[in-house]
Every structure is written in structure tokens, then in C-alpha cells.
Amino acid sequence: MSPALGATMPLSTSLKTRRSLVAALLVAVGATAAGCTIGDVDGEDATSSAATTSDKQDASTAGHPPRPTLGASPTKKPHKPEKPQERTDVELHYDGSATIAVAGMKGPGQTAVAPWSTMKVPIAIAALRNDPGMGATVAQAIQNSDNAAAETLWSSLGSPQQAAEATGAVISEGGSTARVETQPVRPGFSSFGQSEWSLSAQADFASHLRCIKGAEPVVKAMGNVTNGGGYGLGTIPGAIFKGGWGPGADGAYGVRQFGLIPKSEGAGGYVAVAIAVESPDGSYESAQAELTAAAEFLKGKVGSLPAAAC
Questions:
Q1: pLDDT tens, 131-153?
Q2: What is the pTM of this model?
Q3: What is the C-alpha separation between 99 and 120, in angstroms, rounded?
């Protein structure tokens, strides 16, 4: 299924140019992918194609089935952010296979790509509120996308229902909405990674992220991503982001990233974005290349895009 096209401004490069960029990126990604594990057998994400030994956390249980994580829909009334994001009727036209949402602009809703490990961000904030001593575990879950660390954070919040409510409360404080799963949707994968969180809602959350109480350590970790940080938003200097990736029901890879990209070097201010890609050929490498092409497009437009609320 091809993802819906996102938002609207004239594309500055031709489709032919974009395809050339993606082709070049695929060659570069393919050169580093040999010998690396990219299958997702430990829950959330596959390892990056440029992963080091310490980055291979997400494939550490190859050979035997992973234990699914339980995860729930928030029941608390959404909290209105202190500084709501103003939204225009302008859309951002991108002539690529990625779906892009920018906070403050009219954009796409649902995507077929699950949130995967991007859900670790609100979970980490909730866990730190519950236990400030969880800092090292948060760093592992965010910087290395360590699934065992994420499960520890989730479990620290109580029952699956309690964990989902705490996570949903954080999402609401970020001016966003999501359905946080309490039960496994797919065998072998965590429930929270299969939650429903639209791209536009996730971009809104990114827009208010730095204003959420207790988010500072998580934001810092998002600025130092190692596993999954070499493509997409990770190619933009100063980006604060988290990615998530994994196979769909048909085995084809889907990749998501969301976060903040600097308006311009040294100028201060950010643009809040969320991106999703369904791999054109089913491979993780192709999804990486498409996401990097989308990031390059955003980098070229950043000066004209709305600033994040925080």
C-alpha cells in the first residue's frame, strides 16, 4: 500500500532528481548493510544497517520467539497545551513515497506504518516522572532503541492499563492524541509499538515536546541517537528525533521518525515533523533511503515552514 501524500508547497526538485538521489542513497546504504542484522525478532525495531555490535539490541533474541509486551487507551481528559500550535490551510506537496506531516500545516492523518519505537518517547517521559532514577534506562531505550530497556520502562508504570494511561497522559500534555494499545496486536511485538498515532498528531506532540514537564532528559537523548540515527532526520545537524521500524504483516518494512529540526544554524527555533515510509521494495534499506530523501526535502524548505510551539 502506498502511503498517502502529505502536505503543500511546490517541490523544488524534479521527480527525476529525487529518484537519482534515492538511487545514490540506496547504493550507499547497501554498501554498509552487508553482514548486518535487519530482521526484527526482538519486538520493536530491526537494527540499523550501519549498526555496531552494541547497536544490535533489537535482534538479540534471534532463533526463538520474543515475549510480547502488553500495552492501553488513555482515559484522562486531554490536557490543552499552554501555547497551542496554530495551523494553516497550506499543505506541503512532496513528490516522493514518504508521507510527511509538519506541525502548523494541514497534513496527512493515519499511516499504515505503526509507530514502533517512536512510542518510547512518551513512555520514557512517563517512566521518569514515576521514578527519576530511570535515567540510564531511558538513555538506552531512546539512544540505542533498546527494546528490553523500553519494556522495563513500560513495566515500571504498573499494569498494562496503568502504563497506557500514564503514556496517554503525556501524549495529551503534548497537544496530541493517540490510542495506546494494552494488548498485543501482532504476536511477537509489543502492544505499545502497534498503537495508533497519526503523523499529524505525532508532529503536534513534537511541537510541544520541549514544554512537557520532565521531558528534558528524553529530549537530550533524542539529540544523541546512535541506533537508527544515520539516515532520515539523523542526517540533519542538530535534529532531535526518534525513529521506529519493523516489518508489516506482509513482511515489507515500514519506517517512522518524528522530532524537531533546527530552523537554521545558530538562529534558534525548530520545525516539528513526522515522517513515515513504506518500503518501495520491502527492504529496510530502501525505506531508509526514501526517508533520507524526505529529510533532504525538509531541510531545503525549513526556512519557510512554521516554527514549533516550543
A1: 999 999 999 999 999 999 999 99
A2: 0.75
A3: 21
